[in-house]
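Lab notebook, bench 4. Still working through the backlog of constructs that have no structural model yet. Next entry is a single chain of 315 residues. Request: give me the structure tokens for it.
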Amino acid sequence: GDGRLSDSATPRRALLDLPARAVAAGGFHTLALGEDRAVYGWGAAACGQLGRWRPHEAFRPLPTLVAAVSSAEAFPCPARRGGLPKIAAVCAGAHHSLLLTQDGAVWSCGKGTAGALGHGGRADSAAPRAIVALKGLRVVAMAAGQAHSAFVSEDGALFTCGACANGRLGVHATHPPTVSEGGARSVADAATSAPRRMCPLPARVLLPEGVCAAQVAAGIDHTVVRSRDGRILTFGRGQAGQLGTGDRKDRAAAFELPMPPPAAAEDAEDAATAATAALSAPRDEEDAATPAGCSRGPGGARARGGGGVESGSAP
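Model written out:
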């Protein structure tokens, strides 16, 4: 966002000429919600993720307006006919962007190949468009993954759309609304439908009885949900153990992670503290001279951070 197309190992100031209320980082683009409630973006622009796409435009190295404030009705007026209502939150996926208005409506733009935009088709959108399938719901939280999106409504319901691979949508046994771009049609039972590669409209995810969603996060191929009472549920790809289920299996249904009892959690914390103290305690005079914050790497070499390698700040 500073006008350059080069890497930087040190923080550089984005050239946004007003204070920001919120920021979001996508695969190759960045969004900022200005204090004026308009959305600004920079970075990759080829799929329309920054809005206002121009032919042959691959990058925008400087902040530009994605969506402007307007008094226009949220449905079904597209952004190019007068802009959006005031924005409350922004979310960036790998190649798409989600905008949440103050009245709980969701707009999206960018890459639509997998249906992540929630408009019912696979076309990219270079201008933010309201997700009509969510009309009537007040969305309070949202998340954008590599090729899927997730939304939490005010009443604790969870909806997802986009690529279905690895179970990341969690909609194998739910009742998704099948809404055309022109309006609502009917409600279909996904459990009786043939397996699909994508779900281009937001479909409700079946959560365990009594669970109301409060927050959602999306990885590349998996989804994580926090309930109002603090429970954690996951579904999607589990190859790297990212679901926290104790195995590496994919899961297409929301799986509630068992939380350790308080005593067990305290024991684990004590063990971790003791292990950290043991690792940091000097073993000889040479180690005692090692500067604080450093550990001795393989072969006796000093190295900062864990694992014997230089570590950066956590994302």
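Notes after review: The first helix runs from residue 262 to 280. The first strand starts at residue 20 and ends at 25. Flag for follow-up if needed.
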